[in-house]
Amino acid sequence: MKVNGTHYRSLWWDDDKAALQIIDQRWLPHEFRIQQVDTLQDFADAIVEMRVRGAPLIGATAAYGMALAAKIDPSNAHLDTAWEFLDKTRPTAINLRWALNRCRAHLLPLPEADRPAAALKLAHEISDEDVGINHSIGQNGLEIIRKIAAGKKDGEPVRILTHCNAGWIATVDWGTATSPMYQAHDAGIPIHVWVDETRPRNQGALTSWELGSHGIPHTYITDNAGGHLMQHGLVDMVIVGTDRTTRRGDVCNKIGTYLKALAAKANNVPFYVALPSPTIDWTVDDGVAEIPIEERQEREVTHIQGLTDDGKIGVVQVTPVGTPGGNPAFDVTPNHLVTGLITERGVCEASAEGLAALFPDLSGIAKSA
Ligand SMILES: CSC[C@@H](O)[C@@H](O)C(=O)COP(=O)(O)O
């Protein structure tokens, strides 16, 4: 998508420098900084510190990490070491392991001499595929928005609530939850987006930055406002992303998603999840029992970063000094709270049957694996 009129992906390969370039998201929405990633430690730091974040983008970044590993030393032993090193960076988003497994499975059967070039080619492919998947999710989600718009008076916007940032910078391009929004806006359907701030990291500010750059009307709201807005009939639908969706359609996403799903159910607001197929964990059924939830540093809760009055990025402490902070980064929304999963192949019920019907090729392989 565009930043100040120039099209960017959230990561890209620079042929001249023979290196990966990323947007360092720690400084957004206030500063747009590009960073080169040169070493395996850089890759791990970029993921852990959330310079890159969002499940699909973490996966694509890890694929370039494996390409670097293959360039340094293409032996089986080194690829295994790199797999383990990158796999432990963040535990919840399954796209990380999906990408690492795909790279390893592709490379190990090849002669060592062929592995560096093959690994880089595969990383490019994974990135390009992500863009295609997200565009298709947008097309499928657009039809849902179009139907809701058809029931509105001329010019009245479809009011969509979203949580976290499942936008283009959380993917390689388009975003998942935001892709239907971009495509509805571009199709001339009026929309207005309620953007949850998403404490503690305030990814809602990233979503606001994205939507604002694309000219989409939106309002940044506190995490606690959604239920009230739904009670008063001010939300037509919710669309969120996912970090891992189980075979039966339980959805693990940014902390606070579950509360929004409960409020949506209580108020008859449709609750949709934009789901790229690499985010499905076919090995897991019960999301609450089986998905590891990342526990992040308490400093993310006790402190907050923003733009100070002198125009500089600064950090302030919110709590009394010494107050302990708890920081579970994700929660699980059980499938019965989800109206539908918007995938690249169409929209399905959040159930084992719904997912298997859309992805018979993938669900079958996982069961026999
Ligand atoms: C298309 S991104 C989907 C999810 O990864 C997104 O909603 C989310 O929870 C991101 O969490 P983050 O901790 O910012 O990486």
Automatic annotation (TrEMBL):
Q: What is this protein called?
A: Methylthioribose-1-phosphate isomerase
Return the InterPro entries for the record. IF-2B-related (IPR000649), IF-M1Pi (IPR005251), IF_2B-like_C (IPR042529), Initiation_fac_2B_a/b/d (IPR011559), M1Pi_N (IPR027363), NagB/RpiA_transferase-like (IPR037171)
A Gene Ontology biological process in which this protein takes part is: L-methionine salvage from methylthioadenosine
Give the stretches traversing the membrane.
Answer: none
Q: Which Pfam families match?
A: IF-2B
Its keywords, alphabetically, are: Amino-acid biosynthesis, Isomerase, Methionine biosynthesis
Q: In which pathway does it act?
A: Amino-acid biosynthesis; L-methionine biosynthesis via salvage pathway; L-methionine from S-methyl-5-thio-alpha-D-ribose 1-phosphate: step 1/6
Q: Does the keyword Isomerase apply?
A: yes
Q: Where is this site: Transition state stabilizer?
A: 164
Protein encoded by which gene: mtnA_2
Q: Which family does it belong to?
A: Belongs to the EIF-2B alpha/beta/delta subunits family. MtnA subfamily.
- Which source organism? Roseibium aggregatum
Enzyme Commission number(s) of this protein = 5.3.1.23
Active site: residue positions: 243
Q: Which domain of life is it from?
A: Bacteria
Q: What does this protein do?
A: Catalyzes the interconversion of methylthioribose-1-phosphate (MTR-1-P) into methylthioribulose-1-phosphate (MTRu-1-P). Also catalyzes the interconversion of 5-deoxyribose 1-phosphate and 5-deoxyribulose 1-phosphate. Part of a bifunctional DHAP-shunt salvage pathway for SAM by-products.
By its UniProt entry, which Gene3D superfamilies does this protein fall under? translation initiation factor eif-2b, domain 1, Translation initiation factor eif-2b, domain 2
Residues at which substrate binds: 53-55, 90, 203, 253-254
> Which GO terms fall under molecular function for this chain's record?
S-methyl-5-thioribose-1-phosphate isomerase activity
What is the catalytic activity of this protein?
5-(methylsulfanyl)-alpha-D-ribose 1-phosphate = 5-(methylsulfanyl)-D-ribulose 1-phosphate; 5-deoxy-alpha-D-ribose 1-phosphate = 5-deoxy-D-ribulose 1-phosphate
